[in-house]
Amino acid sequence: MTPDTAPERRDLADRLQEAGVLTHPRWRAAVEAVPRELFLQPGVFLPADGGHWRPVTALGTNPKEWSKIAYRDESLVTQLDGHLTADQVTEPVPGVPTSSSTTPVTVVGMIEALDIENGHTALEIGTGTGYSTALMCHRLGEDNVTTIEVDPGVAARADAALEAAGYSTWTVTGDGLLGHPRRAPYDRVIATCAVRRIPHTWVRQTKPGGTILTTLAPGSWAYGTGLAGVTVNEDGTAEGRIIGESSFMQARSQAVVPLAGDLSARTAYADSEREAKVAPTLLEEWMPAFLAQLAAPGAQLVRAARNDGTPQLYVFDADRESFAAFAENGSGWTVRQGGPAALWDDIERTLIAWQDAERPDISTMRLRVTPSSHTYWIDDRPALRWEHRLL
Predict the structure, then answer these.
(1) Dihedral angle at the C-alpha atoms of 175, 163, 73, 62, nearest 10 degrees?
(2) Mean pLDDT, 10 residues at a time, over the chain (391 residues)?
(3) Is the pTM of this model over 0.90?
(4) Of 99, 100, 220, 322, which one is the catalytic site residue?
(5) How many other C-beta atoms lie within 10 A of the C-beta of residue 217?
(6) 32, 50, 143, 189: which has the fewest Cβ within 10 Å?
(7) β-strand 206-216 against 226-232: which pairing, if any?
(8) 100 an active-site residue?
(9) Within the chain, where are the H helices?
């Protein structure tokens, strides 16, 4: 017998309210009404030793234990490597998460930030498990919500869960970067994946005065990403700011392929070598990582180790066939650079300008979107302004 999880849903709403992300009574009603456990079928993967994932299925778990898992304040992985679900294995397995049920504090924080009103229509990019879709259906009515998912298997499971929860909404399988023009225009567009830039298709499919909310990863890093909220203008542009830090899986078509091969061989021949003015370890912090992606959008920060265990740091831009390799020298860091682009020069210049500006946080970043470019800036500082033109 399936236990009634109403107490768990009320407890979740209380925790979200205490965290300051659940403020509107209609969203609280949605959190209390939507059973998260329905959206975790057939199961989840929990972290295990050695970087593996332990499968836990709804059918094979004590109902009370399953309810505890479902209402954890954390993201729950529901798919590995683009195909594997928890019901297909019985032992811990390695793999890369490719779909998940995002932590409720993030989901609810985002949908509250949309500033939704009664009668609004919403387009969701990245259905995932369908939990956030169900919350919006409860708030707006199922006919006012359209959700699109690129993975057919994920979309089918989400659609089944939505039906089980009583929401027969518009669930579409397709490339979310293209939006869904058939039901446009929308009052609100929300993406539960990270994108390099806001697709202009989303801008065109949003009503003037409407809002687009998405996580931006200008260089497709897994961290150092920002939640962007922009308002669409009458002239087909959009403008807003980075609201704060945010982390989501990247859109499937934009995911970066990890570098492979002998990194020492790829950095054997450098064009220059000098003392680094800024420690590359600064890129392990959130705001500097975001700035690095603006300064060198195609670059990746790569951590490795020599045979003796000495840590190594690199910045690579595979498309521009350029690199920066770092080594500690006792008093600081030495940087060796190779290829047509001096990657560290660009990133370092930006980080110094940021430090000179007294290290503003990510919420000071403004953003303007046009059909041909994305422009980012902080205050009126020319050194903290970047224009990314579309090819």
Answers:
(1) -130
(2) 84 96 96 96 93 92 92 93 93 92 93 94 96 97 96 94 93 94 97 94 98 93 92 97 89 73 78 94 95 93 76 86 89 92 95 96 96 94 92 63
(3) yes
(4) 100
(5) 28
(6) 50
(7) antiparallel
(8) yes
(9) 6-18, 25-33, 63-70, 104-113, 131-140, 152-165, 200-204, 263-266, 286-295, 343-356
